[in-house]
Amino acid sequence: MKTSSKKKPTWTDLKRQLADLDRPALLALIRDLYAASKSNQAFLHARFALGEDVLEPYKTTIDRWVCPDVMRNQDISVAKAKKAISDYKKAIGRPEGLAELTVFYCESCMNLLGYCGMDDEGYFNGLVRMFEQALKAITALEPGQQEDFVERLERVRNEGHNWGWGVGDDMDDLMAEYGFAEE
């Protein structure tokens, strides 16, 4: 392997190295990357539509970080939950998958807030921002695909009025802005 004189390697440097690999060496590299982490596995499964539910590992990550097991003293990380959606988007980013993951994120927050009171403005702001991302994702779908997602967000919105911080009102405004307000 050649070494680069640059301090920080770039994609161009890597591409040059990869161009020298034959097919078996490239497959071996991909196998090693696959074995290196669960996130690489989830990426490849999503990219090539392998398995029954390519969204499952992303949902597991989202749920872990926005609806942790409080009895086990697990912490919350909105950033790590959002990264799961970003990772899916990089892997394949199908509109229906993005809609599912963003709505699921909101539902997972609703689950936590349903049994655990919270006073964390950052968490609530993250939820409202994801609620808007879910609405954007839903509007990218065909009208016939939207109904189930909208109904699920309606349940989240209705619960949002119980949480304080103006969450329910913000969600009402977003539903109206995106044309999904109740008549």
Euclidean distance between termini CA atoms: 65 Å
Task: Provide mean pLDDT, rounded.
Answer: 89
Work out the helix count: 9
Q: What structural category do the secondary elements indicate?
A: mainly alpha
Structural Rg: 20 Å
For the biggest sheet, the summary is: none
Counting DSSP E segments of at least 2 residues, the number of strands comes to 0
* Shape estimate: elongated
Which stretches of 5+ consecutive residues score pLDDT under 50? none
Order of helices and strands: HHHHHHHHH
Our estimate of the beta-strand percent is under 5%
Indicate the percent of residues in helices: 55-70%
Tell me about this structure:
The chain has helices spanning 11-19, 23-36, 38-47, 56-66, 78-91, 95-115, 121-139, 143-160, 167-177. It is mainly α and 183 residues long. The model has no long low-confidence stretch (mean pLDDT 89).
Write the layout of secondary structure elements.
Elements: H1 11-19, H2 23-36, H3 38-47, H4 56-66, H5 78-91, H6 95-115, H7 121-139, H8 143-160, H9 167-177
Q: Main traits of this protein?
A:
183 residues, mainly alpha, 69% helix
